[in-house]
Amino acid sequence: MITKKKESPLSFKITARDKRSRARTGILKTKSGKIETPYLIPVATKARIIALNKKDIKNLNIKCILANTYHLHLKPGDKLIKNSGGLNKFMDFKGIIFTDSGGFQTLSLGEAKRTGYTKLGKNQEREKMILKNEKKPSFVKITDKGIQFKSVYDNSLHFIGPKESMKIQSNLGSDVIMAFDECTPANKSFSYQKTALTRTNKWAVLSLKYHNPKQALYGIIQGGQFKNLRIKSAKFISSLPFDGIAIGGSFGESYGDSKRAMHQIIDWISQYLDDRPVHMLGIGWIDDLFECVSRGIDTFDCVHPTRIARHKQLYISLESGGNKENKFTIKIVKGRYKNDKTKIDKNCRCSTCKHYTRADLYRLAKEKNNNNDYAKLATIHNLHFMLNLLEQIRKSIKAGKFQKLKKHWLK
RNA sequence: GCGGAUGUAGUUUAACGGUAGAAUGAAAGCUUGUGGCGCUUUAGACGAGAGUUCGACUCUCUCCUUCCGCU
Description:
Elements: E1 10-17, E2 24-30, E3 33-37, E4 39-42, H1 54-59, E5 64-68, H2 69-74, H3 78-83, H4 87-91, E6 96-100, H5 105-115, H6 124-132, E7 140-142, E8 147-150, E9 157-160, H7 162-172, E10 176-178, H8 190-210, E11 216-221, H9 227-239, E12 244-247, H10 255-269, E13 278-280, H11 286-294, E14 299-302, H12 304-310, E15 313-315, E16 329-331, H13 351-355, H14 358-366, H15 372-398, H16 402-410
Parallel strand pairs: 4-14, 5-6, 6-10, 10-11, 11-12, 12-13, 13-14
Antiparallel strand pairs: 1-2, 2-3, 7-8, 8-9, 15-16
Helix pairs in contact: 7-8, 8-9, 11-16, 12-15, 15-16
This protein binds one RNA strand through helix 5, helix 6, strand 14, helix 12 and helix 15.
């Protein structure tokens, strides 16, 4: 019972399909612009890509970003953004803006804060860290009506349910908004996940009811690591008149397994997906991009490229020694780069690589007091690298060479 | 040559007559719908020799190192 709206705030046209997988290219269009998919959407949680300014964003040719409901609601406040004419004007950004509903903060400020669980579970290394550090209290309280969040700034309480999330996202004026969901960690039992899914599904219906029809709304598939819950969720979400479908939640308890589980989960639900755009929430390592695109994902958002840039890790291509093992990165503060006068990546044509060597970045990254210069250069490199990789992926799909490219990178 | 000071991880340093701490540098790892540039782990040192002592990085002596001053 897919009921198409008369004037959809979003159009998505599939332009090519890979013959040997579900990979596809498309054009996603809203009133603010268009992107070619597959596309990795850089994250600008607080309406800002950390370390970059407007000019950098323009030079990088970033056409789409993702901001966050919870964070903007707290600071500077969605009403203030509404009064400045919406996020595009507030940021002076001409492009598509996605907003996340705040549902992920049930995990990131809840279980992740308390025990260190991420959406990909936890690994031994992480567990060790968590056992050492004292557990911190959760910032969320989940009820059937919504989530009571503590402010990360002053501990004040803020209730966000589906209605509130839709209102905030309407105030933010983003092009594409997410249904309000509960992002569950994988350490929860089947019965808990089932209850949470029922809740999320109810919230999905309420999100449809209360959302601003001028905004494109994506429904979110949850269900944790459980096959029947994922399928149930996929059937339900895809039966509703959402403009797009997002895949969220966590995939498995342990880090190693959860990657495979993620692939499997997409495979389970892929038959319930249709020609609407499919967004993979919060995923974006290089191998993940290939695996997910291969399974029909159109858009991604991920903090990883920008975060690891600030944590001194820079992407490198195969030709510069990148591989699955080193996650296609080098840690630029290693002693071996101190006098390395070569480019960060042989193939990269970003402005950082044009003007700086590895030794330059080493020196800047080591500066204690002012890391702004470093963070900016590193972020530019990593984002450029990823945007470029996605372009290569799109080209390969169109040329019927996606499998070859995938194999080449993941060998 | 004489006098004074000095000597602890690669570097900067702390303490102590009884397991030598830290910072920084080095190496390895973590990071996936971002709490603003982070977190975890590992390796690494008492200048050399003799003496006193149950036991010396610590006290004594000799030598060496480096620094300062004087001739």
